[in-house]
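Annex B, item 7. Sequence and structure tokens for protein A, then protein B.
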Amino acid sequence: MEKITILGCGTWGSALSQSLALNGHSVCVWHYKSDVLEKMSETRKYPKLDDFTFHENINFDSNLSKCISKSKIIVVSVPSHAVRELMIQSKNYFTNDCIVVNVSKGLENNSLKRMSEVILDEIDIDEGQVVSLYGPSHAEEVIKGFPTTLVSASNSESSSKKIQNIFSSKLLRIYTNNDIKGVELAGSIKNVIAIAAGICDGIGYGDNTKAALLTRGISEITRLGEAMGANISTFSGLSGIGDLIVTCLSKHSRNRFLGEAVGKGKKLKQILSDMDMVAEGVNTAKSVYDLSSKYDIDMPISIAV
């Protein structure tokens, strides 16, 4: 049994905490809003997940120092735009032998850095102590026990395998990959393509258009990834075409939902104000546009978004 901390208790953080608790691990969940945390602790419910009750192995704590310092495995599950500030706030609480598991998908605006790079900017640990856990995985289906696959990516084989062992279960299959750059690029940029897929839905286009969009979408993601030094084969895997498919097609996809509203003629500002969850593709689109210019890569779908 491991003592594991989850930083951020959105739908995905909640689903992961449940999966880990069912595996027999002791889980401490932190959230930036103490009142929300207290309510979840009392009710053992997460308001955006139906028929869901937190496992008894899950505890809630608003004390960031206490949560992090007592764990060797820390899962970063906040929106990508909040990762750097959270790392700055908590940098002194991480132990030298911890593993930080990033599940946030996005590319930081201005710096254009991946989330593992943002984490390493602020925390004094080796790059092999950071693992990104990505893949086609909607929380709504994970908590229902639907079979799901993820990729544990790290420059360190021992770290990626350790996370594979901790998270794996009969219903959650974890693969390992040493191309953390490719995994993070694929898992982040697919949100931009998913917005485009949603726009097609909102306009009223059909399956022909969606198929073309996915096919050409993974092509331009791969072009950028190759230019940035990632492994081409990564983009045909779970964090690439796998995550792209589920995010572009699923009713659970926030980015596809946002794009659909845009396609129906709604203003982005209004859509964002009405959403109670984060669509990562909005900010990532700006970073992808800058990266396509920096590396001189043709990315017509992403640039259009």
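Protein B:
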Amino acid sequence: MKKILALVAVVALVAFAAPAFAANPFMDVPMNHWAYDAVGQLASRGVVSGYPDGSYKGNQPMTRYEMASLVARSLAVVDMEKASKQDVEMLKKLVVEFKDELDALGVKVDKLDGRVAVLEENLGGWKFWGEFRFDAKFADRAGGLYTGGSDVDFNLNRYRIWMSKKVDDKVKFTARLGNQGGNVSWQRYWIDVALPWDVNMMAGLWAFDWEDDDGLYTDNDAWFTDRSLNGFYFGRPFSMGDFAMYVARNDNPEDGDEYYEYAGRVKFNFNENFWMSGNYIARDYDVADDESVWWAALGFNFNSDWGFKGAYYNQDRNDVAAGEDSPAAWQAILDVKQAALGFTSLWVEYTDFDENFRAWTDGPWDNYGTVTDRGLGAYDNILFVSLNQKWNDKWSTFQRYLSGSARATGAGFDDTTNWTVGVKYYYTPALSFELAYDKIENSQTVAANDDNVIRLRTRVTF
């Protein structure tokens, strides 16, 4: 009796659902249908798995629902180590064939399309990409602020080859080969591992940049992040933001004193217009005094084109012989996109420093490596303005201005000023030429420490 009632219910469902579905969802797929052969080939090569018990029942007729369910399940566990381009094309064809049944099962076809796109992107094992950057500098002073022993410097300062391989659905390997100190070396190499509970881990020599993640600088370097470290990095998103932490070890520091580095960060996105973050980094030296820094940052978007960002930093420095050993700094930033003003973007940044405030990342504001070093406490405050105009896909122009108020007074010290104008041309989407003029006065607050340069930069990305 129950079977008869069930059959009646099925017939009624099919009758009412017929206008909504192009194919009868309970109709068997004919045994000579190409889908059997496609799934059979994929299963025989180990690219996909079959039924939940691990078998592929190719000798039994299947309903279109069963076939659609198998396609969806196969895409979730596809083994890209064994898949070929033809296999991925076959999977795409199967998704199209059983689109209606997948929709009826509640499987989002657009998500499957996205999954197929990811599979295609990682197809073929290794991926390679890179960057080439060559600068020709013509300075005013021989051996000055911009060049080495002469007033001309031809410098191939960046050539990088990136490579990555998706090992499986949970592990990916990435590395970068490039120039460092005039020698070619492995600059980064790490694995990304998808752990339970949506935790992602990086292990090896990786880079991080929390200040850039919060948009706290442009053109100039970060103060404490934007560095490569050896260790373990963990990140986990949550509904309102993300959490990250790491532990790293520096066994080859410039000053010779090895140390552990620990850090944690949490960011909250309260809505699309307002966010806050809290960040902490500590260094535990083997010999020297330990040091740490924490900062809190926030951002508010008035609309899609106007935004305000700011941050407060506080350091704990035990190596200071005299003066402030817990120096602080704060910055306020107005960020305006070109769409708001029509002809230019606008970045206005004001920062205020305590005595002995010191950055950890080499060369903040180092477009040319001359404005200042890590000793930002040499300034009472700095005003930095950057403008960029994109005229079309080929041409853009830019201007920058920096004014740093010297903390020290008297002979030998003066305020730093630095300004830049430049034009950039894209010969192709991958190849650009940039011509810039940069002038600096009283660099690093040293009176009469002046220079200027014309720089031609050639850059290729591939």
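Comment on protein B: The chain has eight helices and 20 strands.
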